[in-house]
Amino acid sequence: MSLRVTFLGTGGAVPTTERAPSALFVNREGDRLLFDCGEGTQRGMMQHGTGFGIDHLFVSHLHGDHVLGIPGLVQTLGFNDRAAPLTIHCPPGTAGDLHDLVHAVGHDPAFRIQIDEVAPGEVALDADGYEVRAFETAHRTKSQGYVLEEDDRPGRFDRPRAEELGVPVGPKFGRLHAGESVEAEDGSVVEPDQVVGPPRPGRKFVYTADTRPREETAAVAADADLLVHDATFSDAMADRARDTAHSTGREAGSIAERADAKRLALVHISSRYAADASPIRREAREAFSGECLLPDDGDLIEVPFPDADE
Question: Binding site annotation covers 61?
Fold first, then answer.
């Protein structure tokens, strides 16, 4: 079951020739989710092959570099004869402004747009096998991040043990794995816990958007398979990071380390680092012992299950 993350926009408030404003596309086994939609996101979707078929858009906050791509994307979806509704999830108190933004160019979409305010701690999307929850972040306006967390999966099925207990090969294997007792060939009853191991965790993806480092983020991101964190500046501009309510690479690395995340992706890179953003990654690596990534626009990351190597 796939979980793929495509970085459509990894830059800060000012775009560069290499980095567009914030946008992140997640494909979870055919469910297509967009996190933030900076200017030019629709072009990035074409350029990097994600397609336009998103089902949900999760907005972190209403700064322009996170939302100015919404009117253009909505219009393009209409030109492509979209009929399915689109749900936009956003922080409390921002639905009215988002509604105005969608209609700012005098264009009424031919498909329904539902704007759903969701408070930190609440579930924005309760889907089959996973959910997306909002969590509070610390920026200069009302802001939040999102965590996509999958349900636990059934434990591993011990086929040799099932055969040893007299369960005939066939549909009864599936019933046992699904948690149902079955009858063996000798008439005895075989319980699932006799042949199925303990539940296995699903995957966890966390997107902070713009934020100062917060202990609450480390708690939310505990054991994340992929943490995508604001890393706008290097240590040399730590004062600027505090003044603008952003994080440095080292601060993002520290949060990832405290969360015991498996991988950290650094985004919202300031245009000041257009020539060389390596100091941000180097400093993050000094604080984080896991895998540290500085993705470019268009990079795609496959998120494996925690026990994929077992």
Answer: yes
CATH code, 3-153+201-302: 3.60.15.10
Residue 248, phi then psi, degrees to nearest 5: -90, 170
Q: Has 65 been labeled as part of a binding site?
A: yes
- Exposed, middle or buried: residue 230 (CB in 10 Å: 0-12, 13-18, 19+)? buried
Confirm or deny that 268 is annotated as ligand binding.
yes
pTM for the model stands at 0.91
Residues belonging to the active site: 65
23 close to 36: Cβ distance less than 8 angstroms: yes
Q: Which residues of the chain are under the pLDDT cut of 70?
A: 309-310
Domain boundaries of the chain, sorted by first residue = 3-153+201-302, 159-194
Query: Among 230, 163, 228, 199, which residue's Cα sits nearest to residue 3?
Result: 228
Residue 177 counted as an annotated binding residue: no
